[in-house]
Design goal:
Strand content: under 5%
Largest sheet: none
Number of strands: 0
Number of helices: 9
Low-confidence stretches: none
Shape: globular
Length: 248
């Protein structure tokens, strides 16, 4: 009895540790990809001399683990003042839509074809963090006065309210592909005998709150409201959707 308990505890600890490491690495990968996408787009358009010159911040724990002080180091003021608003819009969109959205689409295609468990595991985490990173921008942080979505709207010369349905539709489509297709497929291949679909539930339980929090502070009441709805409504809705997909 004691031996069985110890083995179960050991498996649980290994699973938890692997999930924690996967979360950190998936976040770091997507974060740097996002910021470098902004930076490289600014460089390609002639608004930045060095595409690798991000603001890297200090060697603090929050920055090392979650990259909280790192940003693209792009000055949008001169770009918008030049009258080339479309370039500012393209630079702003490069992070959430081209980098994170593009990675989500690529991961989805690779998950369909992946057969190696290790590759499938990592693809799911990168896909999850790519998808929900886009979700954290649209719809959660579109209706505000600053940040990538506000810069995108300003560069295009439209209201954030006009941008909202288009950006949200793309994010919702990515989220649907992940919850209904990619995650159930990965669950079946990684843990075919798990009736509780624990892996899928863990992925959703970490990803949704992690990125919902981003809209709670500093972006205004609309964003805060959407973040709360995302946390308390989208989590059970997507878990139910995943179960539906797993049952196919």
């Amino acid at each position: 009895m004691t031996g069985a308990i110890m083995r179960t505890a050991g498996r649980s600890l290994r699973f938890g540790s692997t999930v924690f490491l996967s979360m950190l690495l998936a976040h770091a990968f997507n974060y740097f990809l996002h910021e470098y996408a902004h930076s490289f787009m600014a460089w390609l358009l002639g608004w930045k001399a060095d595409p690798f010159a991000l603001n890297y911040g200090t060697a603090s724990i929050d920055n090392i683990l979650l990259q909280q002080q790192i940003d693209e180091n792009v000055d949008y003021g001169p770009i918008l003042a030049s009258g080339e608003g479309w370039q500012a819009a393209l630079i702003a969109a490069a992070g959430p839509f081209l980098a994170n959205g593009g990675t989500a689409l690529l991961c989805h295609r690779l998950i369909v074809r992946a057969v190696r468990p290790a590759a499938l595991w990592w693809l799911v985490w990168v896909d999850a963090f790519s998808t929900f990173n886009v979700w954290s921008y649209a719809p959660l942080r579109v209706l505000t006065t600053h940040g990538d979505m506000a810069l995108l709207a300003r560069g295009l010369g439209v209201s954030v309210w006009v941008l909202f349905p288009f950006a949200t539709s793309f994010a919702a489509w990515l989220l649907w592909r992940f919850a209904f297709r990619a995650l159930p497929l990965a669950q079946k291949r990684l843990y075919p005998d798990d009736a509780q679909i624990s892996f899928s539930m863990v992925v959703l339980a970490i990803s949704i709150p992690f990125f919902s929090i981003s809209g709670l502070f500093g972006y205004g009441p609309f964003c805060a409201m959407l973040a709360i709805v995302s946390f308390f409504m989208m989590m059970p809705a997507l878990m139910a959707a995943q179960r539906t997909g797993a049952g196919r």
